[in-house]
Amino acid sequence: MQSRTLVQPAQLLVRFGLGTAFLSAVADRFGLWGPPGTAGVAWGDFEHFTGYTRTITWFLPVVLTPLLAWLATMGEALFGVLLLLGYRTRESALGSTALLSTFALSMTVSSPGLHGVFTYSVLSAAGGAFLLANVPDPIWSLDALLRSVKVESEA
Length: 155
Known about the structure:
- Helix 1 runs antiparallel to helix 3 (65-85) and helix 2 crosses helix 3.
- The two termini are 32 Å apart.
- The protein is mostly helical.
- The model has no long low-confidence stretch (mean pLDDT 93).
- It has one domain (4-154).
- It contains 7 helices and no strands.
């Protein structure tokens, strides 16, 4: 049996970790952490991120690359904000699982071996998101606040 005392802080940690990781990646591709080539910066601008997107989606038509780069960015921004707020947590976690799993699969088929998937902890993040989707009633969330307001208004 799960201990509610451990599940609730764990779900908060997973929400915060995934949410900030998504938003940090989005910030990187818009140059907020510095220009391309800066230490600790993966892309530095959207052009470099689009190039990376092409690298990991080489098996798809090149015309889809900009769309895929934007879809990934919009998904990460949306899920990042929703997870930090704890709003529609289950749906956001399931969407995050799908996004991260797609990313892991693309990384795996585009490079020799699983080094990148392991180094960037993509499978760990996907697993954490999937576990988060199965946490019943996260109490430290906007979802919980809205549930309590609804219960009070129905009383």
